[in-house]
What does this fold into?
Amino acid sequence: MIIDLTGTTSSEIASALLRARRNAGSPAMGMVGTIVVVVDESSHHDAMKAANEAGREHPSRVLVAILRPGRGTGGLDAEVRVGEGIPGEAVLLRLHGDLAKVPESVITPLLLPDSPVIVWWPGGGPKVPHEDPLGALGRRRVTDAAATRRAAVDFPARAAGYAPGDTDFAWARLTPWRALMAAALDQYPTNVSGAEVVSAKGNASADLMAAWLQCRLGVPVEQRNSRGPGITAVRMFTPAGPIALTRPDGSVATFSIPGQPDRPVALKRRNTSELLSEELRRLDPDDVYAQTLACMVKRDAMPEAEKVVSEVDRRSAQTAAEKAAHRTARVPGKAASPSLEAKAAGTGRKGAAAKKAATKPSGAKKASAAAKSARKAVAVKKAESSAAPAKKAAATRAVAKKTAKKSTSKRVAGRS
It folds into this structure.
């Protein structure tokens, strides 16, 4: 059911919601909170759609406020939606003129009593959310640094003006990344000498990830650019090789730990409704986000040399990884990452070739051996040719001696 109200008031909107709920046959309110969406005219449709999808898991009253400040007389137009595939209730509010400067006067009477309020700015949000008139109403204040180009300026201001309940979608996008990297160190406790974050240029989540790693590990964290999408790789360098989480396609990642086979991990880029659902599940203050903001400010003030991984640590980790990949490639059912496996295979081929070359005689050695054999054959032939006359003379003497002996024997026999 859709009810259009022109030139209305908050009281009339509340009455329209009550009537629509009764006509739908559900006089009781089964909603768990209120989502206030502060958005402009061009993007309100996508924002309302994301809020309604998140409401399937958390049925809520969605109040979409479109602010149109100006010099004209203040006015309020509303569109009430109940049912029609909407899990809770949705109200589209257009505030004109002077009324747009005090939106809290319209939103406050429409909040559900005794339930949490989540204020969301899809277009970026104010620098200090809790100082905003609508942000002051929320228990949770959600901004999105990826929706604005001034994230590098907003984060220091948000760190200085942080209040419990502040959060950002750029931080929510890191939840699976942080969980996997922390789990890797739990499974493979080791010393980390450095880390790197590879992402598309200007990615706000990558800045937060680098600050979080440097804050937790106390090591240099280097940021590198790639074609994206989003974050494409996070690596921690250890003496046994890098612990890496690589996602080149934005869908499936490869999780690598030294001494273990690579594992594919489902790590797709989540849409807006999934991020909003995560924030609705966690309404308590995010202390880690506050600490990361403070670390991000400190990191920005650090010299660039302290944010670069040394080549010694990088090479030692890479060499250890290649050796591990070479060992792993020999084990049936295990496989290393394609690049490491190729390097390991190349190393194996080189080693085999070197061994074969060591055992196989070279061309020069072959020529030397052939010449030596030829000289030996010539010497034997000469020796045979020089010995032939002597042999012939010896044979002649033997025949003559034998003939003489026979004749002597005949003479003796005649005498007798």
Summary: The two ends are 161 Å apart (CA to CA).
